[in-house]
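Methods — Computational structure assignment.
A single polypeptide chain was analysed. Its primary sequence is given first, followed by the predicted tertiary structure written as structure tokens.
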Amino acid sequence: MIGQSDIAEIVEEYDRLKLRIGMTASHSALDICDGAIEEGFPTVAYCKEGRHKTYANYFKTQRSSSGRVLRGMVDKAIVMDDFNDVLAPDMQAEMRKRNVIYIPNRSFTSYSSISDIEDNFRVPMFGSRNMLRMEERTEDQDYYWILEKAGLPYPEKIDNPEDIDCLVIVKLHHAQKKLERGFFTCASFKEYQEKSAALLAEGVIDQASLDGARIER
């Protein structure tokens, strides 16, 4: 794990008056860019070839001669062969030269290994890299653990589908698109059986994911 002192040394080399906000250019990137622009920070979107036009063309920032934003929210779009290329040493060096503070949106940890981010991503991030794993439901100390420790309410888990007696959501991965969800709702065990059977037949979910699904009400 890259330590706080290591990142502090990197930040010391940054020009604090020229900070830029960087992020993986997925669906949440525009929200990040919009907020960054509103707060006065230039933005850098790290895009995958073939999925870059939204950021490089359609939402490209247009500024006046004084630097005021006229429209758009993406100042610079870096187009890469793969989202994981942000971990390449030369790409990280360019980020540091640009004084980039990286926002670790969910897509960052989906397309790049959390272990690599923890150990090899030598770019300052907003937030704590110690908490990235907590977004994974497979971790012992996940976001449900945080909510429980904080004494905050969260959906009740149903362990046995036969106990479904009200509207619930069944959370599991999509069988074909691993970064997508195969969630479905039902209000009884009978409906659970019918919907899960249909989704299994369509190839949307698989039995292993269904067996490990989390049911919440």
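Note: The two ends are 36 Å apart (CA to CA).
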